[in-house]
Design a protein that fits this description.
It is built from eight helices and eight strands, in the order αββαβααβαβαββαβα. The protein is an alpha/beta fold. About 23% of the residues have low confidence. It is 36% helix and 10% strand. The strands form two sheets. A six-stranded parallel sheet has the order 6-5-4-3-2-8. Strands 1-7 form a two-stranded antiparallel sheet. The protein is globular.
């Protein structure tokens, strides 16, 4: 059968119109749907958000009112740290707030902090006696009160005494002058209860956290603020070998060496003295700081 050409054209025209109408309808509908944003940040519990960031380090505040961010001691509750120049084992010669850092002469001074301790102080005294060395002991008041016999032994061997606060309060220097004075007087009274009339020539601030007020009060009470020159970080118990190496390597004429006979496991310090004492006495005159204070 022969198809009518006019009918075929009519069908084709209808199909074209339908196609155009469908395309127009799709384009119109698509334009009414908003496009998604180019990027987005999830706030789900598993997605990235600011709560995952670590908090800012507040360790420098040390409980200071008003958020004071002055530098805190390297090791809270212990004395010592790292030289401001970044060199372990030695500190600068300019004392903080005018505290004394050297012996003032060519003499080398060994100092022992935080005692007395019934386990370690007698060992230290015995080794010093063996090598005929006198040192300076920075004693904590409550330890002096608990162990008066050890304070007596220290003085009997000719060592110099140093006030090291009542209970090793690192923040003592930030307290009022009245509180500082009461703390230092209480400590000195405990020392003198064991050794009446004994000179207490020096004061050492716990943690080396010196402030103007604590330096002023110490001087008013007749004590020289005493810092240090060489710090082997024995408070962190690095081992006898490292303690000894840091001391014998860094000591020079006039050095004040920071060591500990209490405040933790100090056997490493005691053992290090077996090397430190022969080495230093062969090269320097090792002596206690003069006890000309009151």
């Amino acid at each position: 059968m022969r198809r009518d050409p006019s009918a075929a054209r009519a069908v084709g025209l209808v199909a074209l119109v339908v196609t155009v109408l469908l395309g127009t309808a799709y384009a119109l509908g698509r334009s009414l749907v908003p496009d998604p944003p180019a990027s987005s940040v999830t706030t789900s519990a598993t997605g990235p958000h600011y709560a995952d960031q670590p908090p800012a380090d507040d360790s420098s505040r040390q409980g200071t009112p008003g958020g004071d961010r002055s530098p805190a001691p390297a090791e809270a509750g212990q004395d010592g740290g790292v030289d401001p120049s970044g060199t372990p084992g030695a500190t600068g010669t300019a004392g903080p707030f005018g505290a004394q850092t050297t012996s003032g002469t060519s003499l080398v001074a060994l100092t022992f902090d935080d005692g007395p301790d019934p386990q370690y102080t007698p060992q230290v005294l015995a080794l010093l006696r063996r090598h005929q060395v006198r040192a300076t002991f920075c004693v904590v008041g409550e330890n002096a009160q608990n162990h008066p016999d050890l304070i007596q032994a220290i003085v009997a061997d000719g060592h110099t005494l140093c006030n090291h606060s009542w209970n090793h309060d690192v923040n003592l220097g930030r307290r009022s002058p009245e509180v500082i004075r009461a703390d230092l007087l209480r400590t000195s009274a405990a020392i003198r209860a064991a050794v009446p009339g004994a000179p207490i020539a020096y004061y050492r601030q716990p943690g080396g956290a010196w402030t103007g007020p604590v330096v002023s009060v110490a001087r008013e009470l007749g004590m020289t603020p005493l810092h240090w020159t060489v710090d082997p970080s024995d408070w962190s118990a690095p081992g006898a070998g490292r303690i000894a190496t840091m001391v014998v390597t860094n000591v020079e004429p006039g050095s004040v060496v920071l060591l500990h006979d209490a405040g933790g496991d100090r056997q490493g310090t005691v053992d290090a003295l077996y090397r430190i004492l022969p080495s230093l006495t062969s090269r320097f005159q090792v002596e206690a700081l003069p006890d000309g204070g009151t």
